[in-house]
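Our preliminary data section would be incomplete without showing what the modeling component actually yields. Below, a chain of 489 amino acids is followed by its predicted structure, encoded as tokens that our downstream tools consume directly.
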Amino acid sequence: MLTLAIFSLLLHFAMQALSPLDQVFQYIDEHQDDYVQNLKEWIAIQSESGNPTKRDDVIRMMQVVGERIKGLGGTIELTDLGNEELPCGKIIPLPPVVLGELGKDPNKTTVCIYGHVDVQAARIEDGWSTDPYLLTEKDGNLYGRGSSDDKGPVLAWLHAVEAFQALKQELPVNLKFIFEGMEESGSKGLNKFLKEKSETFSSNIDYIVISDSGRLSEKPALTYGTRGLCYFIVEVQGANQDLHSGLFGGVVHEAMTDLIALLDSLVNSTGHILIPGVYSDVVPLTEEERVLYEAIAFNLEAFKHTIGTTELLHKTEEDILLHRWRFPSLSIHGIEGAFSGPGTKTVIPAKVTGKFSIRLVPNMDPEKLSNQVTTYLNGVFAARGSPNKLRVALESGSKPWVAHVTDKQYNAGQRAIKKVFGLEAELIREGGTIPVIRTLQDTMQKSVMMLPIGSPDDGTHSQNEKLSRDNYISGTKLFAAYMAEISQL
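Predicted structure:
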């Protein structure tokens, strides 16, 4: 029977036989229960940035993140972003941004990691199977608001750092952290702040990596592009008050009729945007780029089943992916001012407001697009000859982002994925919009890469959000491998 001393000696020799990175992987496997407990503690903080009554929780979350970085030996700065004025006129503080730094070796690569620790609102009565703020493990999945978006990935980065330190291994790179608490509410105050820090905190950063996204399938992936977004408001003002359709129907120019005609003029039944000039700035698809889409594993029938439809606007897997990621799209979201309650109400609304958005791709520009939309809708409205008043406004505008997949950072990411999973990385894009990516790229003028660890069925922003334990732990290994690979460039 082995004595404890002999067992320890054998364990020591076994560890020595492993490469330094494999030792890190083994440490991560052995401490995964600790990592789950850490995530449970973070999930319990209800850091809903869109809920003013939870602002203290968001601020506390930022402080917890800062203390975690300090516990790893890093330095932090909790930077005040000022205040936010609510629609009711009340002033509340914006949560601080956590700037962290770990290592200042001039001979090492410096990597900046961006993430956020605020979450979308969640209540069990919304349809959750478990308490959204009590991390619950079931069938290999970790259920809780923020588990996948984005507390789990942020913690995985910090756990990867901790694994190197616990084994007395030198961290392969210098790290800088930018963690915010308002991403789910438009990153208020962040753009101006990042520009102010471009010559100080950001000046010596070599690469930027973000893990605030998901994979297309269960295969590991690198994300190299996102679409931008322009959100429009179109308002039609008719009479000075709501009217009875029995008394006034047939004799007045109805605001709702005008609005429906305007919205119907935006896009046809095949999804083609009808606004002149919209497609003129879209970068043509090259054959080299098309090949990237052919290599992606995507099950069209499973996709249709997931969203509950039998027919899509396009027939092939390649065309669906191109129209999700690579081409612009227009979506109509809703109408304010119209009767929408149960029952019947024979009212002619005096004023109605339509809401629609356009997803932008390179090289579309929000300001130019806004002018095109405004000119077009004013022309359509004028052709109707309506005496009603029209107002078209751009509510918000964000530019698209795309990186070069031949960039050295993407090579490092591909090697890290191969090391951890034994698979080639899928190169994918996102159809949604993450404005901070373009801001980081523009202000720092450095390579940005998205390194996702979540699955497509994680339910981010939805009920029963989850991150699988396997993705959480393998993601931690992936981040460690990425740091090792990027240090070799």
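The first strand starts at residue 75 and ends at 79. DSSP finds 15 helices and 20 strands in the chain. Preliminary results of this kind motivate Aim 1 of the renewal.
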